[in-house]
Amino acid sequence: MSTASAATGFSFDHLRQRHAGLWQAYIEHEFVCRLGKASLPEASFRHYLQQDYRFLIHFARAWGLAVYKSPDLFELRRAFDALKAIVDTELELHVGFCRQWGISEQALAELEEARETLAYTRFVLDCGHRGDLLDLHVALAPCLIGYGEIANRLLARSTTVLEGNPYREWIEMYAGEDFQSAMHDELAWLDRALAGVSRERFEQLAALFRDATRLEIDFWQMGLNAA
Ligand SMILES: Cc1ncc(CO)c(N)n1
Question: How far apart are the CA of 6 and the centre of ligand 1, in A?
Answer without folding.
Answer: 34
